[in-house]
Amino acid sequence: MRIGELSTHTRTPVRLLRYYEEQGLIASDRLPNGYRDYEEYVVDRVLQVRGLLDAGLPTRIIKQILPCLNTPRTIHMPYVTPDMVATLEHERDRMAEKIECLTKNHRAITDYLDAARRDTRASYR
Amino acid sequence: MRIGELSTHTRTPVRLLRYYEEQGLIASDRLPNGYRDYEEYVVDRVLQVRGLLDAGLPTRIIKQILPCLNTPRTIHMPYVTPDMVATLEHERDRMAEKIECLTKNHRAITDYLDAARRDTRASYR
DNA sequence: TCGAAGGGTGACATTGGTGTGAGGGTCAAT
DNA sequence: ATTGACCCTCACACCAATGTCACCCTTCGA
């Protein structure tokens, strides 16, 4: 698949796809004419990257953890350095914090909206 | 409390406290000499702001939704414009997406680490 | 064969959060 | 009276993610 198609499939500007590649987050082959050529799975990959990016993780970190998240479950895990383990644990904990924070505020918004709705209905009676 | 104290309490650079104020996320009185003077509750506020910021929300949005999250449960909700409701619903949904994405990846990291640990133990036997 | 659509690289601009420094006040302790 | 810690404002700098533009090439259909 060429970059335009990938772009529409992922609703991601072409510019960013090239940027993600430059940052080592996605890979592409090249057609004889120099055009990028993507495999099917890259679509999911891009969506995952965007999700993580949108959740506030920098590309630097995403690049580090992506290889560990890749869904075609690696059969035998190659040499995980203690360094890598530390990074992963750290990021895992940071993610947990973010989740907690978001969850708390998500609930607060939900509660607020509920209350507002009740209020609105009440004012009609 | 003056800015230095707030800074240590929240482990937040003074620079950023002033920035958050400039963005309308926190408020301060002024002492006769021009120093900023914060009330106790601002500590929590700063932590909340940082959490949201760290989770990827821009100050613009935080500023909009903060008034709705403020814990001293407002007794009667003042005129919530339909506009505001729409914004809140939108942000709520975006937060839900982020939570989902982070949760998924958090689990993936956790699983990966578990597998790696098993692998390591196995190689000792 | 020509034009439009799509692709390539490279470079500069912008935005938001943050760092840092200059230049200058306040105040408490010595 | 001086020093040192703390505060003020203003301004420039930085980085990462993105937008945008210039300039050139390839493919394909009218």
Write a concise synopsis of the structure shown.
Chain A is mainly α and 125 residues long.
Summarize the structure in words.
The structure is a homodimer of 125-residue chains. With 125 residues, chain A is mainly α. Chain A folds into two domains: 1-59, Multidrug-efflux Transporter Regulator, Chain: A, Domain 2 (Orthogonal Bundle), CATH 1.10.1660; 79-125. Chain A has helices spanning 3-10, 14-22, 42-54, 59-69, 82-124, and strands at 29-30, 36-37. Chains A and B meet through helix 3, helix 4 and helix 5 of A and helix 3, helix 4 and helix 5 of B. The structure holds a DNA duplex (30 and 30 nucleotides).
Q: How many structural domains are formed by the residues of chain A?
A: 2
What would you call the structural class of chain A? mainly alpha
Distance from first to last alpha carbon of chain A: 58 Å
Second CATH tier, the architecture of the largest domain in chain A: Orthogonal Bundle
| CATH class division of the largest domain in chain A | Mainly Alpha
User: What are the low-pLDDT stretches of chain A, counting only 5+ consecutive residues below 50?
Assistant: none
Largest sheet of chain A: 2 strands, antiparallel
- The oligomeric state is homodimer
Report the CATH topology name of the largest domain in chain A: Multidrug-efflux Transporter Regulator, Chain: A, Domain 2
Strand ordering within the main sheet of chain A: 1-2
